[in-house]
């Protein structure tokens, strides 16, 4: 992550905030007013960053491609990167969340939330990595929103069915392409391989004491998810509205590993980085699906649809009915879509 920030600073895309800034409302409010990367030098006494992938230009820069080639590049992925064992993770201390600048974003939030934490899990020979929001309960426990039926929830069910806890590790401050990979629906167990592919073909990982593998990160929190549940929420979701309160699984952290003077990464709920990480991973999925029925040129999930619910699909019309088929393919690829517009190579709308 530090190398990416340095690269973006050289491009004039980083705004350094030297003055003291509060983790309660102030830093989130500042990030809502710009898509530039904000680097906080005194975030309640710590270093922090927001808007790391605040726009498509930043994602393209991370990948080393032109913005116009972004979706086509991602659609060509084969999930075949090489994950390299770099040994065991060293230097851990007992977990203490009070040492981290965890933010409270909006007055109606139930508490302080991790919003960029990637939950790495491993059970029964299956690995998974995905972002889950996590509300702080005390200095070593959080309650995490685990969507039912998704891989982390499935692995937890498998562990609990055998009377065991699910070993996990949460990373904060990974390279943005690792974060992007963790936000992408990939074949089971392929998140690390996909991250390696996006990073150029190879990704070193280290093994925690509980057996979970993690990539390079500013902060690693090691622990377990058991049967305990607690109230999670209210919390502002992608549409800028509050999610309801739910009973969700509790994560208990046992150890933490921090780089020297770590940089804490926060994502503003319903902000542009949140929208990009929620929606952009679906664009190559739609691109491939539409490509099976007609000649697809590009796909965009628009900010007007919270970066997730409205799609514009650009095609080259070859036969009558192509627009209708493209719409149907887009809905099949991303079932949360509410609205699809098909345009031609000139950007003009096509009649379905």
UniProtKB/TrEMBL annotation:
Domain 3-octaprenyl-4-hydroxybenzoate carboxy-lyase-like N-terminal: start-end pairs: 6-77
Documented EC number(s): 4.1.1.126
Alphabetic keyword roster: Decarboxylase, Flavoprotein, FMN, Isoprene biosynthesis, Lyase
Keyword Cytoplasm part of the UniProt annotation: no
Pathway listed: Isoprenoid biosynthesis; isopentenyl diphosphate biosynthesis via mevalonate pathway
Cofactor(s), by name: prenylated FMN
Reactions this protein catalyses: (2E)-3-methyl-5-phosphooxypent-2-enoate + H(+) = isopentenyl phosphate + CO2
GO molecular function: carboxy-lyase activity
Domain 3-octaprenyl-4-hydroxybenzoate carboxy-lyase-like C-terminal positions: 276-346
Enzyme class, broadest EC rank: lyase
Entries under Gene3D superfamilies matching the protein: UbiD C-terminal domain-like (3.40.1670.10)
A GO term from the CC aspect: cytoplasm
Stored SUPFAM superfamilies: FMN-binding split barrel (SSF50475), UbiD C-terminal domain-like (SSF143968)
Residue stretches making up the 3-octaprenyl-4-hydroxybenzoate carboxy-lyase-like Rift-related domain: 94-270
InterPro entries: UbiD, UbiD-like_C, UbiD-like_N, UbiD_Rift_dom
UniProt-listed PANTHER family: 3-OCTAPRENYL-4-HYDROXYBENZOATE CARBOXY-LYASE-RELATED (PTHR30108), 4-HYDROXYBENZOATE DECARBOXYLASE (PTHR30108:SF21)
Stated role: Catalyzes the conversion of trans-anhydromevalonate 5-phosphate (tAHMP) into isopentenyl phosphate. Involved in the archaeal mevalonate (MVA) pathway, which provides fundamental precursors for isoprenoid biosynthesis, such as isopentenyl diphosphate (IPP) and dimethylallyl diphosphate (DMAPP).
Family label: Belongs to the UbiD family.
Name by which UniProt lists this protein: Anhydromevalonate phosphate decarboxylase
């Amino acid at each position: 992550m530090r190398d990416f920030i340095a690269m973006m600073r050289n491009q004039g895309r980083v705004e350094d905030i030297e003055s003291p800034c509060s983790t309660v409302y102030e830093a989130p409010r500042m990030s809502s007013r710009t898509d530039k990367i904000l680097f906080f030098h005194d975030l309640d006494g710590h270093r922090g960053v927001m808007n790391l992938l605040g726009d498509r230009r930043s994602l393209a820069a991370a990948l080393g491609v032109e913005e116009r080639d972004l979706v086509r590049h991602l659609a060509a992925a084969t999930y075949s990167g090489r994950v390299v064992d770099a040994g065991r993770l060293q230097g851990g201390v007992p977990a203490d969340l009070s040492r981290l600048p965890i933010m409270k974003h909006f007055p109606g939030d139930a508490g302080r939330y991790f919003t960029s934490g990637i939950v790495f899990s491993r059970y029964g020979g299956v690995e998974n990595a995905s972002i889950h929001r996590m509300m702080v309960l005390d200095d070593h426990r959080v309650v995490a929103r685990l969507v039912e039926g998704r891989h982390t929830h499935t692995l937890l069910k498998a562990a609990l069915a055998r009377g065991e806890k699910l070993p996990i590790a949460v990373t904060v401050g990974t390279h943005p392409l690792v974060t992007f990979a963790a936000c992408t629906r990939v074949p089971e167990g392929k998140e690390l391989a996909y991250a390696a592919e996006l990073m150029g073909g190879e990704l070193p990982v280290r093994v925690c004491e509980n057996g979970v593998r993690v990539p390079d990160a500013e902060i690693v929190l090691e622990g377990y998810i058991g049967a305990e549940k607690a109230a999670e929420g209210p919390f502002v979701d992608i549409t800028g509205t509050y999610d309801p309160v739910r009973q969700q699984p509790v994560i208990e952290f046992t150890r933490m590993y921090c780089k020297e003077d770590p940089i804490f990464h926060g994502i503003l709920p319903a902000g542009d980085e949140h929208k990009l990480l929620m929606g952009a991973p679906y664009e190559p999925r739609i691109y491939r699906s539409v490509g099976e029925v007609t000649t697809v040129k590009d796909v965009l999930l628009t900010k007007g649809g919270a970066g997730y619910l409205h799609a514009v699909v650009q095609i080259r019309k070859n036969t009558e009915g192509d627009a209708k088929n493209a719409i149907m393919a887009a809905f099949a690829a991303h079932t949360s879509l509410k609205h699809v517009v098909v345009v031609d190579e000139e950007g003009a709308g096509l009649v379905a």
